[in-house]
Amino acid sequence: MTDPLSNGAPIDTRTQIAVIGAGPSGLAAARSLQKLGLPFQGFETHTDVGGLWNVDNPRSTVYESAHLISSKSTTEFAEFPMRADVADYPSHKEMRQYFFDFAEHFGLRAHYHFGARVQKTVPVGEGASPLWRVEWTSADGQTHSAEFKGVVIANGTLSEPNMPKFEGHFDGELLHTAAYKSAEQFRGKRVLVVGAGNSGCDIAVDAVHAADSVDISVRRGYYFVPKYVFGKPADTVGGKINLPAWLKQKVDSTVLQWFTGDPVRFGFPKPDYKMYESHPVVNSLILHHLGHGDIHVKADIARFDGKTVHFKDGTAKNYDLVLCATGYRLHYPFIDKALLNWQGMAPQLYLNILSQRFDNLAVLGMIEASGIGWQGRYEQAELVARFFAAQASGSSKADAMRRTKAGPTPDLSGGYSYLKLERMAYYVHKDTYRKAVRAAAAALV
Fold it and tell me: How far is CA 423 from the centre of its chain?
């Protein structure tokens, strides 16, 4: 292998950290390692940076109308603010350009192999800090292999569709939101969207403008947060007030009803959980279209029979297209699950980042939280980079971190009882989590 920054001169990859992915988390890892002068080599399947926010990436799951559900000021990297002319809630096009600009500004592309799909990652040798053999396939189909000092996995969490199994057979189109790109796919069709999470509601709103009819099938109730409150992005209002979880749930759910009313009147079930115990739906238009009769709520699906969908409340209706907005699975196909301490629905890692078995293996981006933003992931990357740097220098602070991460992970729930769902398996409370990560990183300085 050659060093991209040394005019083709050979480099010993065993001095480098392998970074898998060039989306937001991968770029955060690259920048954090770069800042501390730690050699690294990036691998990205697509031909450029941006991850799922690069719509040209075949693995991208964004669609034509996709926008952030958090505002730019709570989402951006702190050291690289978004331009003033970027919208409050940027589109996927603006986000792609943002990551292009970030990579260009810090010279990160030069550190990446593009068109490089990692196939396998295995430890070589014994102990807590083995070398790691990374095998990848380049764009020309050739297979390559090299050994690295450590590995940072940052290939994202929203690319592997979670497709449910249904009783019976549907004779129309049955798709997952990963296959959705434009409302034209709904033109002249009777559409059923399954699931009322953020993507499901966004797409149902899209469908209104093209489909003959739009229904949305749900199995539980939701809390709907408008994008603007008092004329400001909702996630910028009231964030400086720290309340106990039980009080925040009571206050915010009350205030929310002032703005949205009770979604039960539109046919949604009453939530059987308290606010913030599942990810809220940030959408200003779904209730608008429900109120105008453009979208109708249906019960959970019981079975398919041709083009007829039978629901669990005993009703039935015919559809041409069923779109499953049923989320994504964690997907790290290039590494054995046992190496990630995979238990139940997700890997068990210290702060959802650091391997407790290995000192040179980390995962970035395996968090979900309301309002965590890219900066929350950047702080993860800073922790990893500082830990790797402390080990490289032989600092006693690295020993302290080894002891800390070997112990139990602190409670990251912030006092909330999150629903026991697959998509919530790595959910954290934003403020509690970021405070813990920043404290761990500060202890390494």
Answer: 10
Determine the pLDDT at residue 4.
44
Q: Residue 301: beta bridge partners?
A: 311
What pLDDT, on the 0 to 100 scale, is given for residue 96?
A: 98
Rg (CA), the chain: 23
SS3 content of the chain, % helix, strand, coil (to 5): 30, 25, 45
Per-residue pLDDT tens over the stretch 344-383: 999 999 999 999 999 999 999 999 998 899 999 999 999 9
State the DSSP string of 205-217: HHHTTT-SEEEEE
The letter for the amino acid at 59 is R
Query: Sign (positive/negative) of CA torsion 268, 418, 229, 182?
Result: negative
d(C-alpha 76, C-alpha 79), whole Å: 9
Question: Is residue 22 helix, strand or coil?
Answer: coil
What residue ranges in 21-75 does DSSP mark as E strands? 40-44
Confidence of residue 397 (pLDDT cuts 50, 70, 90): very high
Contact 270, 411 (CB under 8 A): no
Quick one: which H or E segment has residue 432?
helix 430-442
For 3-23, the pLDDT digits (tens) are 444 445 578 999 999 999 999
